[in-house]
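Human: We require from you a standard protein entry with sequence in single-letter code and fold as tokens, and nothing else.

Assistant:
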Amino acid sequence: MTINKKKAAEQKKPIGRVPIAGCRCHCGYEWAYQGTTRPEHCPKCKSWDWDKPQGPKSPDLAS
């Protein structure tokens, strides 16, 4: 076994679950992102207000 393989074997981490930073939009889409800044919009619905709660829905004015 070479020195590089021995170092790689020592640095292996156990297999299992890991926490990943993620986001959830009000449309229901969830995604993981790499970065330190807040994503600008939801990749699915393109909403710029993806991280703000939606207000109450207006009553149906059809009647």
Q: What stands out?
A: The first strand starts at residue 22 and ends at 24. The beta strands are 22-24, 30-32.
